[in-house]
Write a structure and sequence with these properties.
The structure is a homodimer.
Chain A lengths: L7 E2 L12 E14 L2 E7 L4 E7 H4 L1 H8 L6 E10 L7 E12 L14 H6 L1 H4 L3 H23 L3 E2 L5 E2 L11 E4 L2 E5 L4 H11 L1 E9 L12 E10 L3 H29 L4 H5 L7 E3 H10 L12 H8 L6 E4 L12 E2 L2 E5 L1 E6 L4 E8 L4 H10 L4 H12 L5 E7 H9 L20
Parallel strand pairs in A: 1-2, 4-6, 7-11, 13-14
Antiparallel strand pairs in A: 2-3, 2-5, 3-4, 5-6, 8-10, 9-10, 11-12, 12-19, 14-17, 15-16, 17-18, 18-19
Helix pairs in contact in A: 5-7, 5-13, 11-12
Chain lengths: ~425, ~425
C-alpha cells in the first residue's frame, strides 16, 4: 500500500475525468509488453482499452514478476494514477501503483492475437466476442436497436410483442421450424405482421421487435436461421407515407450511430464517409425499371422473376444511398399485398436495398383491406381457412387501409458496420450447421 | 362540403391543441347514442376516446340516417370543430361537420359491451384487445418495457440478444419445448443467463430482453408458456450491489409509469396510491426468517422446502413494498448459484416478491466464479458435460465475481396494472390449451 488517497472506482471510458487522480479499474489482460523494469499491460474492461504502465520500482519485484508471467485474459483489479498521454489511443494511460490478480487464465486461451478460421472462431464464439472488433459490433448493434425503438416511440408507435409460437405460417411453409406444443404442431414465427394488423385496430400505430425464424437450408453470408426483426405497422398509413417512414427511420439510425459510435466504426475500419451520405430522399425504382436496368447491364432476367442477391447488388451499385424497388409483380409477393390501383398485376409493396452490395434490409407494403379480395387471395394461395378466420375478422369489423414493413436487424448491422457476413452481427449466430455454443 | 378552412389532421390525444379549430380524426365507432336530431358517436382512434356530436341540420338527413344505423367498430374519418367541454372525459368534444364511413363493420361483432367469459374473450383476443381496458394494459406494458430499457441504458448496460434455440437447458429439463433443428434436437430458451455470462466478459454490463419458454402443464393465473424476460448481468457486481440495482430498477419503472400512465391506471381501476408507496429501500428477509414467519402464521412448511404461490403471498402481505427473500437453501436453487460464505448451505440468491399477492417478479443472485466448484456442481446435477464446456471456459479464462437477475415482464405488468391473471398482460397469450389466435 502507498500513501495515495482512496482511489475512484471508474471505467476505461471515463478515466479522462480523473486526470492526475488515483483510480481503480477492473478488467481483463488483453496484451502485454515488457522491457526489463517497465511493463505495459493492455487492459480491457468492456467500456474500452487502456495501457497500464507497471514499473518494478513502484509495485515491487514479487508482483512485477507475477504480472510478467500473467496469461492473456486473466482478470485484474488495477490501481493507479491517470496520466494524459497524447500517444495513447484514448488519450490517457494508467501509472500502476497496485494490482490484484482476480483469476489467472489457464494458459491455453484458444483465441490468440493471430488469425483464426471462421469455423474455429464460431466454435469459440463465447470467447471470440471479447476481441475488440466483435465487441464494437455488438455495441453498435445495441445502439442500432436503441435507435429503432427511440425513433418509433417518438413517432407514436406502441411496442406490441407478437407471439413466437404460432399455428400458421406467414411467409410460406417450406422454411418453418416445427415445435411440439403439448401434442399439437406449432411453428416458430417468421413475422409478427398478422398480429400487428390486429393490434393497430386497437392502438393505431404499433411495432413488434423480436426474434424470427427461418429454416434456411442455404449457407449464404446473408442468412441466419434465427434473426431479429423490427416490424412497424400503422392504421390509415398509405404506401407513400410508409416509404417516407422507412426513409426517416433509416436516416435516424445512421445519424444516431454516427453521433454515438463513430469511433467504434473507425476502429473496425468502416469508411464512415459512406454513411454520411445517407440522407433523404432515397432514390426509387419500379420493379419494371429495375428489370430494365438489369437487362441493360447484361443480366439474364425476365419480368416476373424474383431478384436474387446478385440482382440486388447490381441495382444498389448504381446508388450511394439505399434505393427503393417498388411495385413488384403480384405473383412473386405475399398473399396479403394490396394491388396497385394503376396496375393490378403489381402490388403496393417495396423493398429497400442497402448500398455497397448489402442487399435488402427492409420489405414492406400496403396490405389488402377489402374483405372479399383478401378471402379470394387466401383461397388462391390454398391457405388453411380455419387459421385465417381471425385475420379475416380484421376486414369484417372496421377494416382500414394500412401498411407496414419489416427491417432485419442483422442486415442493417452488417451494412452499417461494413461486415462481409451476418454471422458477426448477432451475439450467438444460428445457421444450418450451427446451434452451439 | 362546407366553407370551413382545411382541417388539421390530428389524433384524439392531441385535439386539445386545436380548440375551436377544424380537425380530422380517423378511428373506429366504439359506441353511439341518438336522440332524434342529435347523435353522439363515441370514436376511438388508438390514442384515446372522444365524443363526436352529429346534428341532422349540419350533416344532412342522408348521412345522419346512415350514421344512425352504423354498427359498432365501423371505421370512420370524421371532420369537425374541437369544442371545450368540461364534462367530456378528455375535456373536449367534436362538433361534426363531415363524416366518411371507411368500412362498415359486419353487424355480428362478437365483443359487445356486455360481459363475456374468459375463454370466449381469449378466442377473440384479436378483437378483445380493442376494448379500452385491454388497450390500456398493452400501452402500460409498452411503457414498462421502455422504462426497463431506458434504466439499463442509463446505467451503462449493453443490450445483447441471447439465442432462442439452444442445445441445452438452463433451468431443468421437465418444462422444455423441443424444436426440430435440421434433424437435431434443440430447445427453446428458458433464460439467456448463461449467454449473458459470456457477454459480460466482453462488455462488462449487459442485458438480454426476449421471449422465454416453459412448457408449464399447470393452469395457473401466473403462468404462460411464452413470456418476456429482461435479464441484466454484470461483471464484478456482488450480491449486495445486485440487490440495490434491482431496487433502483423497480422504483424507476414504477415512477415512469406513474409519470406517464397514471390516467391509464385510473381508467382501469388501479389504486395508484399503492404504487406511490414503492420507494427504496425494500424490506429484506432471509429464507430462514421467511420460513419462521410462515410457521408463525400457521403454514405447514419446513426449512428446505421451496415456496409456492400461497407462501409468497403470505410473506408479501406483511409489507406494502416489494420484499426480498434471500439466502435460499442450496438444494432448491440452480447449480450455478454462489454459496454464501457465511453459511455454505445457502446461496447468494434472492427473489423479489411484489406486494398485494402478485408473488415473485425477480429471481437473481451471484454466480459461481470458481472453476473447480462449478465443475463439481455440473457433475452433481448430472448435466451433460459437453454442453457446458463453453460455460466452464468462462471460469477458465479470466473468471470474475458476477451477478445477475431475471425479471418477468408479464408478472410486473400484472402487479402494476392490478390484474388477476397474466393472460391479460401480453398481446397474444400462450398457455397449455391456447396457441390461437
Amino acid at each position: 500500500m502507498d500513501a495515495h488517497a482512496t482511489p475512484y472506482e471508474t471505467t476505461v471510458r471515463d478515466i479522462g475525468t480523473y486526470e492526475d487522480k488515483m483510480v481503480t479499474l477492473k478488467g481483463w489482460l488483453y496484451n502485454k509488453r515488457s522491457s526489463g523494469k517497465i511493463m505495459f499491460l493492455i487492459l480491457r474492461d468492456g467500456t474500452g482499452i487502456v495501457q497500464c504502465v507497471v514499473s518494478k520500482g513502484e509495485v515491487g519485484e514479487g508482483l512485477f514478476s507475477r504480472l510478467d508471467k500473467l496469461s492473456q485474459e486473466s482478470s485484474l483489479i488495477v490501481q493507479g494514477l491517470v496520466r494524459k498521454d497524447p500517444r495513447a489511443p484514448g488519450g490517457y494511460e494508467l501509472a500502476v501503483t497496485e494490482c490484484e490478480i482476480v483469476s489467472e487464465a489457464f494458459d491455453d486461451y484458444p483465441i490468440s492475437l493471430k488469425e483464426h478460421g471462421a469455423e474455429f472462431l464460431l466454435d469459440h464464439r463465447h470467447l471470440w466476442i471479447r476481441t475488440p472488433r466483435q465487441r464494437n459490433v455488438l455495441l453498435i448493434r445495441s445502439e442500432i436497436i436503441k435507435a429503432c425503438r427511440d425513433f418509433l416511440h417518438n413517432e407514436g408507435f406502441v411496442n406490441v410483442d407478437a407471439p413466437i409460437m404460432t399455428p400458421a405460417a406467414c411467409e410460406g411453409t417450406t422454411t418453418l421450424f416445427p415445435v411440439e406444443y403439448f401434442g399439437e404442431q406449432a411453428y416458430l414465427s417468421q413475422s409478427g405482421q398478422l398480429y400487428n394488423e390486429a393490434a393497430i385496430m386497437s392502438l393505431g400505430k404499433v411495432y413488434c421487435f423480436g426474434p424470427t425464424f427461418r429454416a434456411e437450408k442455404s449457407k449464404t453470408r446473408r442468412h441466419l436461421t434465427e434473426f431479429w426483426m423490427v416490424e412497424p405497422e400503422a392504421a390509415f398509413m398509405g404506401f407513400e407515407e410508409m416509404l417516407r417512414l422507412e426513409e426517416r427511420m433509416v436516416c435516424y439510425i445512421v445519424e444516431h450511430i454516427l453521433n454515438n459510435c463513430e469511433h467504434l466504426l473507425r476502429e473496425i475500419g468502416r469508411d464512415v464517409e459512406r454513411l454520411k451520405e445517407i440522407t433523404p430522399p432515397f432514390p426509387r425504382l419500379t420493379y419494371t425499371e429495375a428489370v430494365d436496368l438489369l437487362r441493360r447491364k447484361g443480366m439474364d432476367i425476365s419480368w416476373g422473376d424474383d431478384f436474387g442477391a446478385p440482382h440486388e447488388a447490381a441495382i444498389a451499385s448504381e446508388y450511394t444511398k439505399p434505393v427503393f424497388v417498388a411495385h413488384f409483380p403480384t405473383q412473386i409477393k405475399a398473399f396479403y399485398m394490396q394491388p396497385d390501383p394503376d396496375n393490378p398485376d403489381t402490388v403496393l409493396g417495396a423493398d429497400l436495398l442497402a448500398p455497397e452490395g448489402y442487399g435488402e434490409i427492409i420489405g414492406g407494403g400496403e396490405r389488402i383491406h377489402d374483405y372479399t379480395l383478401l378471402l379470394e387471395r387466401i383461397k388462391q394461395h390454398n391457405l388453411p381457412m380455419e387459421d385465417y378466420e381471425w385475420y379475416l375478422d380484421l376486414r369484417r369489423y372496421g377494416s382500414v387501409p394500412h401498411s407496414g414493413f419489416g427491417m432485419g436487424i442483422e442486415r442493417v448491422v452488417a451494412w452499417i458496420c461494413g461486415l462481409e457476413h451476418v454471422r458477426e452481427t448477432i451475439p450467438f449466430p444460428r445457421m444450418i450447421n450451427r446451434l452451439r455454443p
